[in-house]
Amino acid sequence: MPGYVAAVTLVRAWITAQPDLVGPGRPIALGAFRQHPRSPGQGAYVLLSRIGRAADLVAEDVLDSPRISASIYAGTDEAAELAATAYANAVAALKGAPAAVDGHAFLVADDIVGPLLVDNHDSDREQWQFLVDASFYCL
């Protein structure tokens, strides 16, 4: 069935379901969001957005290929970097282990860029931010 998927919703659900990534004492303690949380408290969190679409893998165009940008925020440089690295590794692991989420399947994630440090020192947000962008191929 060709068409687009609600990619940010699906990636957010996938991140939240990763027990090695999300929760107290984990690299992304606070989880994934579509908007900045009002009171982020202690720990790293991920802000997700769809930033485009990758080229089709097959001529039949049966896959959606959303490009997802993950902005990882934390109160320290080390916490932000550890969270971004853990997220990037989890995304890269989809190449060998496709994931099912809400009736859809992430077959593979590719073209991973990052973790990249963003200088956020002149904003009122958390001072430490890393970006990880990836293309997800979804059924």
SSE map:
Layout: H1 7-16, E1 32-33, E2 45-53, E3 66-74, H2 77-93, E4 99-101, E5 104-119, E6 128-138
Parallel strand pairs: 1-2
Antiparallel strand pairs: 2-3, 3-6, 4-5, 5-6
Describe the protein:
This protein is of the alpha+beta class and 139 residues long. The chain contains two helices and six strands; from the N terminus they run H-E-E-E-H-E-E-E. Strands 1-2-3-6-5-4 form a six-stranded mixed beta sheet. The longest helix is centred in the middle third of the chain and has 17 residues, at 77-93.
Defining key terms:
139 residues, alpha+beta, 6-stranded mixed beta sheet, 19% helix, globular
What's the short version?
The chain is an alpha+beta fold.
Proportion of residues in helical segments: 10-25%
Structural class: alpha+beta
Number of helices: 2
Shape: globular
| Rounded average pLDDT | 82
The biggest beta sheet is recorded as: 6 strands, mixed
Radius of gyration: 15 Å
Poorly predicted runs: none
Binned strand content: 35-45%
Q: Within the largest sheet, what's the order of strands?
A: 1-2-3-6-5-4
What series of H and E elements makes up the topology? HEEEHEEE
What is the terminal separation in angstroms?
8 Å
- The beta-strand count equals 6
